[in-house]
User: Fold these one by one.
Assistant:
Number 1:
Amino acid sequence: MVEENKNFYGYMMIIAIDGPSGVGKGTLSRRVAQHYGLLHLDTGLIYRTLGLLLHKEGMKAVEEEAALKIAKSMTLRQIAESPDLRTQEVASLASRVSVFPSVRSALLDMQREFASSDKGAVLDGRDVGTIVLPEADFKIFLMARPEVRAHRRLKELREKGIDPGLGEVLREILVRDRRDSTRTAAPLKPAEDAYILDTSDLTADEVFQKTLSFVEKK
Ligand code: DC
């Protein structure tokens, strides 16, 4: 089992999968992790958990100091998928809080601790290949047209019984894209050595197969 998690150089594989929201990172990361028997962390959950904690404290305008205090107290054990984390409000708070360099750096150790597991890991997010794990064995950067991502996101939300409408989802995606890629701390951008894959016209299966070919050819 342990042998299977090793990469071609004989050590535990670490795979970084980055990209904007609604691009298919979550689906791909889960499949890749399962395929190679690696652990998986959606790093967006960390920022969403922080957003939710701020929301519970009744914060609308995000203040760096308050966010930092909570970020410093967070542990990996608090990070778990939940419907509360998937609301547009929490997504927006997560995106706003993620612009603070102090907050981002307070959350780094948690992500690196996860990646240092002796099982190997897939981490997905915005800056995994560039900042969190610049030494990752494989880096994949997914992109897709905003309209395509909005359709995918709306489908996911509808499956959860939430329907904000396509226009609202697209607007939120564009606002978050702008904030995530123009912030000075860890802006959303591919690592120089990332494999860049446009998923706009690909099925989830095709994205998965292309990723496996990249990993196995490298
Ligand atoms: O991937 P997501 O939609 O769950 O992420 C929510 C927000 O968290 C996103 O708008 C930006 C932030 N984020 C980040 O800044 N860095 C990461 N590695 C992951 C998420």
Number 2:
Amino acid sequence: MPIDVVTIDGPAGAGKSSVARALAQRLGLEFLNTGATYRAVALKALRDKRDLEDEDALVEIARKMKLESIEGRTYLDGEDVTDAVRDPIVSRSVRYPANAPGVRALMVQWQRAVGLVKPIVTEGRDQGTAVFPDARCKFYLDASPEERAKRRVHELQLRGESPNFNDVLAQINERDKLDSERAVGPLCQPADAVRVNSDGKSIDDVVNEMEKIARQKLAIFS
Ligand code: DC
């Protein structure tokens, strides 16, 4: 019997991390944030003052670094970098490792290895397509660009910033384009995934909906 893997793919800002973390807790599985793996490569490259456009340098970093996911937190060479990888400078730099095929190959290998040793709810862009094509339970979590921009504006306002809605919307559309046009590991809905739209729904509503489906697919009964 293969170990349970629940995949959640979808665009930036659809609520994947919050939903995946909560769903993992309800199902008693571990949460794996795969965006954090690409972010960790970017963080290390920035700290080591490496050229982000040098794919060989990024591959070397990815090969040498020790990456761990423990109880939903990400460790880089033994340091908990879960919060550090969310820094805006890392967010601006992460497209370089995410677009580097050599880095992707290593990250995919690492993500699969995690799924081999423990049951997980994993979220990213390519989890149900390239990384775990045989997963028994796959979701595609979506939200309209306008809804995602609204949430992002609210998040920034809570941090004391005064963002312009149209600028935020343009950034979201640009990120969607980059994510879906990437040659390796592009964002797309797996054919066998259940599509969930989070427009106008709370995290709890979305998690309730997904929990029911996941319990049926994995035959986990409470
Ligand atoms: O979900 P996030 O914002 O933490 O993702 C960071 C970047 O990594 C983003 O550019 C998309 C990319 N990514 C990816 O290419 N494949 C994944 N499985 C997860 C994230």
Number 3:
Amino acid sequence: MAYTYDDQNIFAKILRGEIPNDTVLETEHSLAFRDITPQAPHHVLVIPKGPYVTYDHFAAEASDAEIVDYTRAVGQICQILGLEEDGFRLISNAGRAGVQEVPHLHVHILAGRPLGRMLDKA
Ligand code: DGP
């Protein structure tokens, strides 16, 4: 499958420094910042710096170094926020069915309150 990346998406603009963000962690290949519309006391987005649309795109085309960096960045955020004891949820929406709003791969890290069941049954 060919993935098409739109470099005008809002996270691409954040990566270029065109839009401010509340950074929690920056690594060589990844950036983590607070979601602008938090849905839990902790709501951090982790994005790779490379132009990847979705998780499957990233898994297929990113370098090993990018994948290791990104995976470790997600884990580091959990440590920085102290989430080991109470737990957290990771979500990565993709495409239409996943209701992805911003077409640049991001993992949502949500924590700080009971998060309910994973999906609405509706
Ligand atoms: P998703 O539906 O998975 O594509 O979620 C996109 C998230 O991005 C959503 O929770 C709101 C957040 N978001 C959108 N625009 C901005 C922005 O300009 N800055 C920040 N920090 N977050 C944003």
